[in-house]
Amino acid sequence: MVELLLCSMLTIFPDFLFRRFVQGKRLGHEITLFSVWFELRWGITLCLILTLSLITTIFYFHPSTKAVTSVFRTVTILPETSGRVAETFVDINQRVEAGQPLFRLDSTEQEAAVETARRKIAEIEAAMVVAKSQLAEADGRIVQARGMLQQAVDEFQARTEVQKRSPGSVAERDVERVRVQVDTQQGALDAALASREAIVSEIAFKLPAQKASAEAALQEAEVDLKKTLVVAGTDGIVQQFALRPGDVVNPMLRPAGILVPERRVTGLLAGFGQIEAQVLKVGMIGEVTCIAKPWAIVPMVVTEVQNVIASGQVRPTDQLVDLQQFARPGTLTVILEPLYPGQLDDLPQGGNCIANAYTSNHAALADPDTGFWRAFGLHAIDTVGLVHAMILRIQALLLPIQTLVLGGH
Question: Is residue 408 scored above 70 in pLDDT?
Fold first, then answer.
């Protein structure tokens, strides 16, 4: 409507003045409701052409969109394990800090596992004490076996010496019996030494390995016990939290609630049409007006233009993708941030806005190599952005009326 009125002032209105004061035609006589088209056909035709050209120029070089939102993230409150709620510590809409307990699951099984692991460690430590006693006993057996072996060797040497000096004075059978006794005592010594080595290996390797395994099992049990206490991962406000003792929660099927992190709105996500992909650039100046900030225009700057469009994404599946699924064009995602810090601090997270982005040809106009007609066109493009700025301000003025009165609220 603004463009039509502006163009009519440059086409239809001069045409009417010419016919009224130059040709002498009068309203209600030569110029009537039925003769308007014939009398003002040149002005009406030029007005329509100029209006369409102006609207196309404005909306292409100074794009606008109503798909603007202050997107925010939420954190699902989920335990790492399934269980029955034993105790809750917070309520709905309560503000929490990072690390603050939210609720606790029944931990009877986990506590029993922790106690079992501790008893296993104590059992292994007792086995170490017993093994050290067995080592002392083995040392004593080695001393005893060495003494008996030495005694058998001495007796064997004595009988052998007597046999050499006086053959026949000692029965051959007695000498053989003493030799067998020496071999027996040597075997007993070897057995005592092997027994000691086994006990030393048990003390040095087996029991420490068992203790390490038991400590790992204790640590695992303690981790499982800690999982029964669910805490807040970040500062925020608890929403949709209706758990009560006795409820069963499952990380796959039944979440406990939602935690909305406390964040200030530092930027907006806007979705522009694909036709404006060549116009939208990082650094462009824009403006927004939001429903939650009526009658306010906030200057913005484009900080990022996403180089992909979500409607064209493909994920690997076991079925071929039909390209007709991509027939609906997606939007170009643009990130807008306030030109001056703090201007969106009072905007609620998730608020909807209307945004304009303005093309600026200041650098091209400042270039001395820019020709006259090109400079004239660039001046015209920058100038018509004023029309879009006026439209945005009219929208900001009418937005509360449309929402509260015409919208039926």
Answer: no
Please list, residue by residue across 222-254, b when 16 or more beta carbons sit within 10 angstroms of its beta carbon and e when fewer do.
bebbeebbbbbeeebebeebebeeeeebeeeee
Residue 99 has which token pair?
């690390």
What CATH code is carried by the domain that includes residue 331?
A: 2.40.30.170
User: CATH number for the domain including 100?
Assistant: 2.40.50.100
Residue 175 has pLDDT above 70, yes or no: no
In the chain, how many domains are there? Answer: 4
CA triplet 333, 53, 7: central angle to 5 degrees? 120
pLDDT band per the 50, 70, 90 thresholds, residue 288? very high
Residues 176 and 273 both lie in one domain: no
**pTM higher than 0.70:** no
Helix (H) or strand (E) holding 2: helix 2-10
Same domain assignment for residues 172 and 46 = no
Amino acid at 90: V
Specify the DSSP element, H or E, that contains 393: helix 372-401
Which stretch of DSSP H or E encloses residue 125?
A: helix 108-165
Dihedral in degrees, nearest 10, Cα atoms 38, 40, 46, 49: -60
Percent of the chain having pLDDT more than 70?
95
Report, in angstroms and rounded to the nearest whole number, the Rg of the chain calculated over CA atoms. 47
Residue 239 resides in a domain: yes
DSSP assignment, residue 253? Answer: T
Same domain, 268 and 398: yes
pLDDT value of residue 177? 76
In a domain, 318, yes or no: no
pLDDT digits (tens, 9 = 90+) for 240-275: 888 888 888 887 777 888 888 887 778 899 999 888
Residue 346's domain spans which residues? 63-72+263-311+326-402
